[in-house]
Design brief:
Length: 767
């Protein structure tokens, strides 16, 4: 502390100390030795490029390769909003290695407000770092500060922030004044409280690891309550409010086993299409000299119908200087999910419906007569689907305009699974050199386009829809984490005239898409005119077409998106109807927006789509995936222009392993009955090329089992079937013995007599 005389206080610290005699009161650990490492300029501005050098110094201050003099605690009152766990091995290892040496690292969660998800700052997102949120004093009670950033962390949706401390109206040193003070707000002011507590805890428990000290601070934190008595969600308040007194006296720690320094039970983002369960374990360590007994129970904070937590063990006894593993079973039935957000999070931001991640979170409590220890748990959950097309190629009948129905197979736990449909514009090879999740989320696999001009009949009333499908999911479609640019050249001079981007309403309101602190969870398709005029941004619709209070389109943790725009906003009219476009994707702001992918320019005329797909919900390209997909194909136009069309389908609700389908449209094969199967294929399979009711019954999703190939087909009650097999379509089919009675709606047959090697072809006969 600093006395009123402007001198450092050098006396004793005790309960009755008169704080009125101080200009700056003592901190949490007043006897700690402080080292100030300067990484910013004299104006307090700059980048965090010197952080790694400073951390290296913390590990070995005298650079003699002997780490016994390393610092005990590092206070990082800094950060960058919408942080990512470091992809670069050197940066990531610095935090992990410093923690392994025994140093507790504490960083701020950030000050980007607590109404939006994934805003936690780097380096607080690193697993071993303690991310600290901010509380304010209201009367005599602490509540969450409005500026404190919300989690979870990117790119793996882990629980951050982890603990809360005072961070509003905090008196601190004023730069350049010697002994002057100032009052500040922010998580940077909350961090020193936790850093001081870590120092006191290390003093009390000198032989504990840095990870055990972190677990201790989280275990002993107290639940932080909203004014209505509701516990704040864990992605706002983590384990709760710092309790220094409990931390220095507790002798038992509890942490998630194998959590890589995180210590909490973080399940990440779960897209669940069928009933699911997983068991994790908590390591309960008794560092004391007497046995410790606890009752175990669950405190649920944010719930989702259909998601449950069970504790198979309700009581434990941990011997002195020993540990026990406690199982925690999580289970979910996604068909029961009700997709409701937590009650403390507003449904609208700036009067517009916001998008959600649906969370489950709470704490596993270990309690006895003298104390309670808590281990937070957290997951993002969504009901998913496994939809896919039944054909990869469709032959078109010999006429100019062909109407088709595309059938989808698969299940959906989500009651309204969405699929969007486009004319395929291009494909891009997967970049197998990318290893970081954030980079993979920007690797383009396919892109498409659609126009509703055939329905509207007027360019002024036409909407153009662009589709992007990438190799992996982004956590958040903010341009600061994943930055897609749909670049458009309308005058064919090779220079980009417009860009269509995924951005948020917060940045649009500020007319500035470059400040991450403006980002919110209202995701828009934004038109950026190039070069920008005085007001160069235009809101051209919601990302994925529909506002989130009408349809859940899953913008978070997805790898497919739709960017709509009225054709007139590209300067198109009845005289000018075409343009060139491509997809350019950039990586995260944290890494300097590296270019990840760039496709070729493709020409498109909104009045001449080969694939007409705007027959979906409300006349858009979005369809209910539980219903047949109706499209039309201008075969005549495709033949005249020498195009090889294909249909691109994006599965918005699907699990990550199947997000897109491409269906090739065959213009050359004859299809007399217009059932989508060419005459040649029908003849080879034994169906009638002239009969639209004579169709393939076998489903394409066959697989090899340990007993032999598994074949599935649609069946009808009261029928029986025979299976035929051939080594090639040029050979005669042999009939396998036995009639198979129908088990509608699906028959499953395993060919146990099939040869071990070579291709096999099957067909089903109805005797």
């Amino acid at each position: 502390g600093v006395t009123k005389q402007g001198r450092p206080y050098e006396g004793d610290y005790y309960a009755g100390l008169d704080y009125s005699e101080f200009l700056l009161r003592p901190g949490v650990a007043p006897k700690a030795k402080l080292y100030a490492l300067k990484i910013f300029g004299d104006n307090a501005l700059g980048t965090t490029n010197l952080v790694l050098d400073a951390l290296e110094w913390c590990a070995d201050p005298n650079a003699d390769n002997n780490f016994s003099d390393r610092l005990d605690v590092v206070n990082l009152s800094l950060g960058s909003t919408l942080g990512l766990e470091e992809k670069h091995e050197a940066e990531a290892e610095v935090f992990a290695n410093l923690t392994q040496l025994g140093c507790v690292i504490v960083s701020g969660a950030g000050n980007s407000n607590n109404n939006n998800f994934y805003l936690v700052a780097a380096p607080g997102v690193e697993r071993s770092v303690i991310a600290v949120g901010s509380a304010k004093l209201v009367g005599k009670t602490y509540r969450m500060a409005a500026h404190s950033a919300r989690g979870p962390s990117a790119p793996h949706s882990l629980l951050k922030p982890e603990i809360i401390a005072p961070g509003e109206l905090i008196q601190s040193a004023r730069m350049g004044t010697g002994t002057g003070t100032a009052w500040f707000n922010g998580t940077s002011l909350a961090v020193p409280h936790v850093a001081g507590a870590a120092a006191l805890a290390m003093q009390a428990h000198s032989n504990w690891s840095a990870t055990e000290i972190k677990a201790l601070l989280l275990n002993t934190a107290k639940p932080l309550l909203h004014e209505d008595g509701t516990v704040y969600p864990e992605t706002l308040a983590g384990a709760g409010f710092l309790d220094v007194a409990h931390a220095v006296t507790a002798t038992v720690t509890a942490m998630a086993e194998g959590s890589d320094g995180l210590t909490t039970l973080s399940l990440g983002a779960l897209a669940v299409a069928k009933p699911w369960e997983e068991t994790r374990q908590i390591r309960v360590t008794n560092h004391g000299d007497a046995e410790a007994k606890f009752d175990l129970f669950v405190e649920e904070t944010v719930t989702e119908t259909g998601f449950g937590i069970e504790l198979p063990v309700k009581k434990i006894t941990v011997a002195a200087q020993s540990h026990e593993l406690v199982p925690v079973r999580f289970h979910a039935d996604p068909a029961q999910f009700d997709r409701t957000g937590d009650p403390l999070t507003p449904a609208k931001l700036n009067d517009r419906a916001r998008s959600w991640v649906y969370e489950v979170s709470g704490k596993i409590v270990l309690a006895n007569d003298t104390e309670k220890l808590r281990v937070p748990y957290h997951a993002l959950v969504r009901a998913a689907a496994t939809k896919h097309t039944t054909e990869s190629r469709i032959a078109l009948p010999n006429r100019n305009l062909v109407s088709l129905e595309l059938s989808l197979e698969g299940d959906s736990a989500h009651p309204k699974p969405l699929v969007s449909v486009f004319e395929l514009a291009g494909v891009s090879p997967r970049n197998n050199l990318l290893t970081d999740a954030a980079d993979i989320s920007a690797d383009v696999l396919a892109f498409g386009v659609a126009s509703d001009y055939p329905q509207s009949g007027s360019v002024a009333e036409t909407t153009v829809y662009f589709a992007i499908a990438n190799a992996g999911p982004w956590t958040n479609p903010h341009s600061f984490l994943y930055d897609p640019h749909l670049q458009i050249d309308t005058n064919f001079d090779g220079w980009i005239d417009h860009e269509l981007a995924s951005c948020s309403n917060g940045g649009f309101i500020k007319d500035d898409l470059t400040v991450s602190g403006y980002a919110d969870d209202v995701f828009l398709s934004i038109l950026i005119r190039v070069p920008r005029a005085e007001r160069g941004l235009a809101d051209v619709g919601y990302l994925n077409v529909f506002p989130p209070d009408e349809f859940d389109t899953v913008p978070f943790n997805n790898s497919v998106m739709v960017l709509p725009i009225p054709a007139r906003m590209l300067g198109l009219d009845e005289e000018k109807t075409d343009f060139d476009f491509r997809v350019l994707t950039l990586g995260a702001e944290q890494y300097g927006y590296p270019e990840i992918d760039r496709t070729e320019l493709i020409r498109y005329d909104v009045t001449k789509p080969v694939v007409h797909s705007a027959f979906g919900i409300n006349g858009t390209v979005m369809y209910d995936a539980n219903e047949p997909i109706k499209i039309a194909v201008d075969r005549g136009l495709a033949k005249r222009e020498g195009r090889r069309p294909a249909v691109l389908l994006l599965h918005h609700m699907n699990t990550d392993d199947h997000k897109l389908d491409i269906v090739q449209l065959d213009l050359d094969a004859d299809d007399a009955d217009a059932d989508g199967a060419s005459d040649d294929d029908e003849l080879a399979a034994g169906t009638d090329p002239a009969d639209p009711d004579s169709v393939f019954a076998i489903l394409p999703a066959s697989r090899k089992t340990a007993l032999g190939p598994e074949i599935r087909w649609h069946s009808v009650a009261g029928k029986s079937y025979q299976v035929q097999r051939a080594a090639s379509l040029g050979q005669a089919f042999e009939t396998l013995p036995g009639l198979l009675p129908a088990t509608p709606p699906l028959n499953v047959f395993i060919d146990k007599t099939a040869p071990k090697e070579g291709e096999l072809f099957y067909r089903i006969l109805k005797p």
